[in-house]
Design brief:
The chain is mainly alpha-helical. The protein has ten helices and no strands. Its main location: membrane.
């Protein structure tokens, strides 16, 4: 117990002292995660809206597929991206394996179905409510999609934050495609796994405390956005 107590004390000291190694890992984690979530939003928001509003052959199959991909195993995504980016893969010439870019690609693939599926549900519910009004105004399909995306922006921020929470906790895929290389691809989750296996609990605990704090902030943001959306709806 004394060792654990000392480790916690050292962990808080690392955080309070803005330890360079700790800050470097946190900085890379934030860069990779936020970039992946932005890419996932750029793809997932319009994709989900089109699935909600559009009527085309294969739509039902795509809806089922997107929903199923929400539970896509991270290690499978990591393996697929590894095969694409490896020297023998179709994108091996780009030499992206074991780089932050490879980690961003893997996280984007994991997060996009989550954002797309949540967006589809939100936009579908809103479309059923405003469909007749939009038709009476002569709104075309693309205009309808854009209008609904804008009107649902607060609810869609919730979808983005859900994707952010998923990306923050990811370890399997980024470990495979990033390699957990010090000063290059070591992020919070992979560093926690490595430092724990080495018995270096202080750094692992410091990163764990930061990661839990970020998760709490994400969930607090979700609750705040829901309350704001409810107040605006009843205003």
């Amino acid at each position: 117990m004394q060792d654990f107590g000392a480790a916690f004390g050292q962990a808080f000291a690392l955080i309070a002292g803005f330890d360079p190694a700790l800050m470097e890992i946190i900085g890379l984690s934030m860069r990779v995660t936020f970039t992946a979530v932005v890419i996932a939003c750029i793809i997932g928001l319009p994709l989900g809206a089109v699935l909600a509003v559009g009527k085309f052959p294969g739509r039902a199959t795509l809806v089922v597929l997107i929903s199923a991909l929400m539970g896509l195993p991270p290690v499978v995504v990591g393996l697929a991206v590894y095969m694409m980016l490896s020297a023998a893969g179709p994108l091996g010439v780009l030499q992206l394996l074991y780089t932050p870019t490879a980690m961003i690609i893997a996280q984007s693939i994991l997060v996009t179905p989550i954002i797309a599926a949540l967006t589809r549900q939100v936009i579908e519910d809103m479309h059923s409510e405003y469909d007749e009004l939009l038709r009476s105004m002569g709104s075309r399909r693309l205009s309808t999609v854009a209008t609904l995306l804008w009107d649902a922006r607060y609810s869609l921020l919730t979808a983005a934050l859900a994707g952010l929470g998923r990306a923050l906790a990811e370890v399997g895929a980024v470990m495979i495609v990033g390699g957990n290389i010090n000063h290059v691809t070591r992020v919070m989750t992979t560093a926690i796994a490595l430092e724990t296996s080495k018995g270096a609990l202080a750094l692992a605990l410091g990163l764990g405390i930061i990661l839990v704090g970020l998760s709490i902030l994400v969930n607090a943001g979700l609750m705040g956005l829901r309350k704001s959306a409810e107040r605006l709806a009843y205003a």
